Amino acid sequence: MYGTAAHGSSRPLTTTFEQADFPVTFAGTVGLYHAAPQPSDTAVLFVGAWGLEELCARKFWRLLAADLGREGISSLRFDYPGTGDALDPPDYSAGLDIWRESILAAAAALRDLSGAKRLLLVGHSIGAALAWQAAETLGDVAGIALAAPALSGRRWIREFMALSRIADHGAITHATLPSGPAMGEQHIPDPVLAGIRALDVTKSAKAPAPDMLFLPQEGRATDPVLLERLVSLGAKVRETPFEDYDAFIRDVLLSVPPTTAIGVLAEWAVGLKGDGTAEQRPRPSGTAPLTGDGFRETPVRFGRGQRLYGALCEPEGPPKGAAVIILSTGYDRMSGRGRIGVRICRDLAKAGIPAFRFDFSNIADSPPQPGMPDQILYHPGLERDVGEAADFLEAHGLHPAVLSGRCSGGYTAFRSALHMDGVKAIVAVNPFDFSVGPGADVDALIASVLPFGSYKEKFRNKAYWKQVLRLEVDVLKEARHLLRKVSDKMMIKALPLLAHIPPLSRFLNPSERDFDRLAEKGTKISLIYSNGDPVISNLEARLGKRGHLIARYGNAGIVFLDDADHNFSTAHTRGYWLDALVKTASQFKV
């Protein structure tokens, strides 16, 4: 077993865990079904957004599904083909119909799973327009809720591209820019994009459902002429602002789940719930894998109480090396920003290397661990999740393991390798750091990678000091940010001197002790950094300029890549990461 005395999966716990929702596959995609304990004859189908909006909404959907389930309403959420964890269609000549057909297939799957006779649709952003069209096609939808609706495809494209430019600040510019919304390597294929451009449901001649709930973004009311026309067509229409939407969608790392909107949507759905109960259906015994070119991928629940959600990606033939566990970054879902997690896992499987990715506790589609704080980044409890992922692979005959991740995922890979047996190697991409003390202020940690000069500019700004006088700035937090920067600067200068006093060096530099321990265990360490990345300041505070002290360790190596951004958002950088993983995993026999 891979469990550890401090943070591993074998640690005795007496608290009851919430199960992850049940994964199902259909029509080349994967969905998550939340079964109500006492199901009514009404079920909810979530019709999601795309890209950054979809990434931010994963936890939102999970929380809403749980609330609905407690009220007797089962639900299903899913990925459009070519997005998230779905398969990529062989071609996109059918355009937007590929996504439309997946919505209809999801509706059929939900009816079959739940036994419900009445469907409600909840659409988000561009998914609102697609839910509207699906409701018109299905014809028997009892109600439709439109959350921050984008009812015009052209307008959504313009606004999404503006949002992406802000969210992807600092990303490498692609040689060939896509003509529409993009996030990393992921972009909407041109035939689908053409269908979205032509999408405008405000011109529909009939109401898509008898009961409609609009949740427009704050300060952006729905066109009153549209509402009046829907009422004249016989629909019951209600409008409630989507509170705190900007804080919800601004960035995955900073996204705050909109609890008020969850309450509004749950209340609306309960109000439309029928009096009858659903026909009892047997629970599926398992989930059929999705098969692609050179890989077989199975979405799974695993861990104590089946509390975690992940995907096992296996090669068609016998494994050619150790299994790789890809650890997600920040609060991204396991498919990753720009689907980098999906691409890495499937490419590994094509190369003969088994790969596993999953959502950490309280991120995206995995429920929280009991007793864990809401802010879980850099928390040692995540190492328990990694231990349970490794135990799952070992139970399936896939061991030893290689751990890999980017930024916070790279940090957790490093920490997990310290506390777990059976981990042969780690490949960390732009790891944020190597050691974070208990109870650390994560916001201060993240701010600490800002260039030192940015503080000088801030302190010279009169507007900043006016904010301080108006008590709009947390002065203590700002002081902690600056103190960490000063401490790191001093450590970088002190490291060459400390190298001559090993006991003092190890006392003042916990990371040095950790590297020593991994060297004793024989764990191979590969560090990959983007040249000029802000997190290099943390590397240098632990291992000297350009990490030169890593030369002490025969088990470790470091590489700096040009033309690479922090997110590794291009095919070039992902290819380097993939090659490093294949080379590392191939050294170990399964």
Description:
This protein is α/β, with parallel strands linked by helices. The protein contains 19 helices and 19 strands. The chain has helices spanning 52-70, 97-114, 126-138, 153-167, 190-197, 224-232, 245-249, 259-271, 340-350, 382-395, 408-419, 442-447, 452-460, 462-469, 475-498, 502-508, 510-521, 536-543, 571-585; strands at residues 22-26, 29-34, 42-47, 74-78, 118-124, 141-147, 182-183, 186-187, 211-215, 236-239, 290-292, 295-302, 308-315, 323-327, 355-358, 401-406, 423-429, 524-530, 556-561. The strands form three sheets. A nine-stranded mixed beta sheet has the order 11-12-13-15-14-16-17-18-19, with helices on both faces. Strands 1-2-4-3-5-6-9-10 form an eight-stranded mixed beta sheet, sandwiched between helices. A two-stranded antiparallel ribbon has the order 7-8. Helix 11 (408-419) links the parallel strand 16 and strand 17. Helix 2 crosses helix 3 (126-138) and helix 9 (340-350) crosses helix 19 (571-585). The chain is globular. The two termini are 15 Å apart.
Note the topology.
Elements: E1 22-26, E2 29-34, E3 42-47, H1 52-70, E4 74-78, H2 97-114, E5 118-124, H3 126-138, E6 141-147, H4 153-167, E7 182-183, E8 186-187, H5 190-197, E9 211-215, H6 224-232, E10 236-239, H7 245-249, H8 259-271, E11 290-292, E12 295-302, E13 308-315, E14 323-327, H9 340-350, E15 355-358, H10 382-395, E16 401-406, H11 408-419, E17 423-429, H12 442-447, H13 452-460, H14 462-469, H15 475-498, H16 502-508, H17 510-521, E18 524-530, H18 536-543, E19 556-561, H19 571-585
Parallel strand pairs: 3-4, 3-5, 5-6, 6-9, 9-10, 14-15, 14-16, 16-17, 17-18, 18-19
Antiparallel strand pairs: 1-2, 2-4, 7-8, 11-12, 12-13, 13-15
Helix pairs in contact: 1-8, 2-3, 9-19, 10-11, 15-18, 16-17
